Amino acid sequence: MPEGTATPISPEASWLSFNRRVLEQTCRPDFPLLERLRFLAIWASNMDEFFAARVSRLFAEGRGSPEYRAVLAEAQSQSEEASRLYREFLRSLEDLHIHVLEPSQLTRAEQQYFGAYLAEEVAPLTDLIEPGSLSDLSSQALYFASGEGPLRHLIRLPQSLPRLLPVPGREGGFVRLGALVRMRSDLFLPTSGKPPLFEFRLIRLAQLARSRADWDELPEALEARLDGQVSHLELEEDFPHPWSEALRTALGLLPEEVFRLPPPLDLSLVSTLVSQGPAGERFKPLAPKRPKGFGKDPWAYLNRRDLVLYHPFEDYGAVEEFVEAAARDPKVEALRATLYRIGENNRLAASLIQAAKAGKDVAVLLEGRARFDELANLEWSLRFSGAGVRVLPLPEKKVHAKALYVRRAGHAYAHLGTGNYNPLNGRLYTDLSLFTAHPALTADVWAFFEALEARKPPTLSVLRTASGIRELLLEGIAGEAHRKGEIILKFNHLTDPAVLQALEEALGRGARVHLIVRSTLTALWEGVDARSLVGRFLEHARIAAFKNRGKWRIWAGSADAMPRNLDRRYELFFPILNGRAKRKVLEILRAQLADDRNTYILTPGGQERRWGGKHDAQRWE
Predict the structure, then answer these.
(1) Residue 342 carries which DSSP code?
(2) Chain CA centroid to CA 463, Å
(3) Nearest CA-CA partner of 542 in 573, 576, 511
(4) 462-607 shares the fold of 292-450
(5) Which residue among 153, 400, 438, 514 is the active-site one?
(6) Could you state, in order of their start, the residue ranges of all structural domains in the chain?
(7) Of the chain's two ends, which shows fewer C-beta atoms within 10 Å, N or C?
(8) Active site residue 400
(9) Residue 128, Cβ neighbours under 10 Å: how many?
(10) Class (C level, CATH) for 31-279
(11) For 146-192, how does the pLDDT look when each residue is reduced to its tens digit (9 = 90+)?
């Protein structure tokens, strides 16, 4: 293939390649056993998300095509490999005195205890469903099928109960809930005896009926979300063939959309073993650095210089403390924040409530349409409104920007980031934070919030939002489309056709192009340096760097280079203006380009793993 000619890759196939990289982390020789096991749980959750959301385009437009079948074949291959790895982990865990037992391995007293547990705690919450109601089955629930001859009964286990239960009095002993139910099927079926049970689960496409629903419409839209079409069915390997055909036909599935796998079907249950296993088999807690002089008086600090932090190596707590300081400072008059995925407990959100109760002008753009976080954000909207925080109306475009604004004694301060204002993410994701009092930047942040409140498209001078981010990327790439040009782009997803076309043209004109793309990259060329980093921390920062005749221009922000982010969302990209901060971000990028411990080199022919070297970009200092 001539250099510079693109090899197209579908988003679904590219994302599954990423999930295979996740699965391969279970084999890392430099990771503790329980951390390797954690990646099996992450892989399982990712695969559920794939069939619930990421496969939706191909399911709607290419179902049954060779491309669709190839994607499903890769998903099945990974699922079979994951099942094999699970069984290997069970053997390895025995060395840690952790045992996942079959009911037959329990003592008589233990079996009696779990019989009582099933009768008291599980059976009252379990649904018995007639086969005629197959079309109403719930997404991601665990089911059992039973019958003598024809399929007679379906049992739906409650999703509120853990799938893996500790055995009382037997340290390190666990038993699967599904295996226990199988042992005592008589507690769940109206028939006499103990007829055999066969495990299965399905996944539906999960999309809001009204993607632009505002706060007053959101509850109704959420109620309708799980009515999506079934996209995937998993059966245990011994599931009777006549029953499987009955299920497949009733659910409207193609044969290749049905996987047969050994139980357990939902491998995310291993997260229980990770959390309860010995600390010595997990990563040592990271001790993030704290920025010197910033916490004591952030206002004086920012009046002198900008501050860039690289999380989690530098403390995300600095972001929370910045808002806490603003909430209790009597000179602070107003606060604004964009909130996307903030979780159940959030110090920053609590500080905004404290500030409102103290009489400050506080408003938030709380994105009610953050996929799978809608219900949590709906709860936060009630908490904010009850405390006097104005919850801004949702614009037609989803707001994915990460911005905080503080006005204090007539001076403006801002925080701009690449990651969500979420304390868990702040410890597990690599992200950049910019704190600034630069007048042009803070004026744009204020203009952004004012436009959202007025339900108008933001007009910004320095920051870029919406399609302006694409224009920024195209301008930067075009400026480096020559033999001395150099471009470094770091994204989670790089799929925008215009950006990919510009990169191809720059590459063809001799520019050096470095791509650090965690998950989805839909074109590859001979001659491009493309890589994906997968390791202890989730790579999440979005950065664009252009050499610009030897003087680097560096931007960072919330947006991935995808049509949906640039056309259907309000994101924010911000420049790194301070020379010291620029050098820091360049050091981060160069460390990732040199990494040979967490890296996969991406080529038109596949991916090549680089492990075991001396350069670990996830130990940044």
Answers:
(1) -
(2) 26
(3) 573
(4) yes
(5) 400
(6) 31-279, 292-450, 462-607
(7) C
(8) yes
(9) 13
(10) alpha beta
(11) 998 899 999 999 888 999 999 999 999 999 999 999 999 999 998 77
